[in-house]
Amino acid sequence: MALSQSEPSKPLTRRFVLGAIVLGVGGVVTGKALQGGASTALSSLGSGLAQYLPGGDRFRIYTVINGFPSIPVDSYRLKVSGLFLKGADLSYNDLLDMPQTHFDHRFQCVTGWSVPNVPWRGVLLEDLLKVAGPMREAQALEFYSYDGVYTESLTLDQVQVTKALVVTHMYGAPLTQAHGGPVRLFVPSMYGYKSIKWLSEIRAVSSPTPGYWEQQGYPVNAWTSSNGSLGGVI
After folding, report:
1. In the chain, what are the helix, strand and coil shares in percent, each to the nearest 5?
2. What digits encode the pLDDT tens for the residues 74-109?
3. Per the CATH hierarchy, to which homologous superfamily does domain 71-227 belong?
4. How far is Cα 11 from Cα 198, in angstroms, rounded to an integer?
5. Which of left, alpha, beta for 62 (phi over 0: left; psi -120 to 50: alpha)?
6. Predicted TM-score of the model (pTM)
């Protein structure tokens, strides 16, 4: 599978991101404005933080590369690989043809900010797994981004508990590039770094590798404080 990748910049450290938020360098953008096409007004700030647009529901857009990878919808592919009985290579339209799930749920960042009642739409990851059929030895999933750098993981138990969603739409419109479009993951009840953007591959594995930020100090278990008692660990 050919990936559309941007040249990686020097990776952001956890200290840099937290410091950027404290100092006000972190980009604050409008979720609804971005969904309306205003993402073209964004440009890179430093090593992967976007500039801001005022007002509305306040998202802060983080990337680990300079800018955003560009993946045309008509050439988008989601590879489903690893320990599955049936692998898959799904187009954007393939995802739209699968049963759709809609719900509103808060997006919570580990750095402290959140956006309430975000309308999400897409395919339940659990439904996608039923089609692919994880093998008995599969215990977890690894996720890969079209940016060529970012990775994440969930256990299969966490997939069931969280009702993770393979997202194609947000705020009633197709995902913008800045928000991880054409397709991203959203993991309710976990901090935002689990919700990988520009999703390119889902791989079933017997033992997962910690994701990008987890390798730099973030907890592998990313339950938000209100859901910290939920089960399932990596």
Report:
1. 20, 30, 45
2. 999 999 999 999 999 999 999 999 999 999 999 999
3. Oxidoreductase, molybdopterin-binding domain (3.90.420.10)
4. 17
5. beta
6. 0.75
